[in-house]
Amino acid sequence: MTKKIKLTTNQRIKKNIWRRIYPVFPWLQSHLLKWHLVWHEKGRQPYHLGWLAPGKTLQDLENHLHNEWNFGNHFVAWTDKGQVLSWRKLVDFDNQYHIRVFKDGEIRGHFEYTPESKPLDHFIEINEQARIDEFKKFLGHYVVQKKYISHLKKDTRTAPDSEITIDESLILDK
Questions:
Q1: Adjacent-strand bridge partners of 44
Q2: How far apart are CA 122 and CA 67, in angstroms?
Q3: CB of 80 within 8 A of CB of 41?
Q4: Where are the alpha helices (DSSP H) in the chain?
Q5: CA gap 140, 117 in Å, rounded
Q6: Torsion angle, alpha carbons of 143, 149, 150, 154, to 10
Q7: Is residue 4 a contact partner of residue 167, using CB atoms and an 8 Å limit?
Q8: pTM score, two decimals?
Q9: How far apart are CA 151 and CA 75, in angstroms?
């Protein structure tokens, strides 16, 4: 079933602010880090989910997450060391699932506030949750628990239609 998300006035204001921030966000983020106005530990986030299954590629996983579950590129997120994929699935304006895949095939993920809704809470990781069962449902047979090392390279050709931004036309269907 498909439903359109109705935004409150406050959410529409935030959405319009973020529409202006999105184009400059990568530059802003790198300079805030460089100038030491914000910080980010480049280690891996908590919430280990497993390993990319043998015989599966990063492209296979991307196609599955995007086509089956509406995950897409999360360019507003910090970059963890060794990360080759950072995608999110919006639940609504305020909440999202965020998944990361690393070059050795490890998959990690968490449920959190969107940066667009609650930037400070998002930044200081208020209300982050593991939600392992939901992630296992999303990942299906693309994740295994037995350690299996891959040698993945970052996919630099991410399709523009995989960009997941907050928008009034945000539609949930899964």
A1: none
A2: 26
A3: no
A4: 9-21, 25-34, 58-69, 119-123, 132-139
A5: 29
A6: 90
A7: no
A8: 0.84
A9: 22
What one-letter code names the amino acid at 14?
K
Backbone angles phi, psi at 132, to 5 degrees: -60, -45
Torsion angle, alpha carbons of 112, 114, 117, 122, to 10? 60
Largest CA distance in the chain: 47
Paired tokens of 5: 């998300």
Over 70: is that where the pLDDT of 93 sits? yes
Task: Kindly write down the DSSP assignment for every residue of 63-110, as one continuous string.
Answer: HHHHHHH--EE-TTS---TTEEEEEEEESSSSEEEEEEEETTSEEEEE
Residue 165, pLDDT > 80, answer no
Question: What does the domain layout of the chain look like in residue ranges?
Answer: 41-159
d(CA 33, CA 138): 32
Tokens of 48: 């280990």
Among 79, 44, 52, 38, CA closest to 140: 52
pLDDT at residue number 174: 43
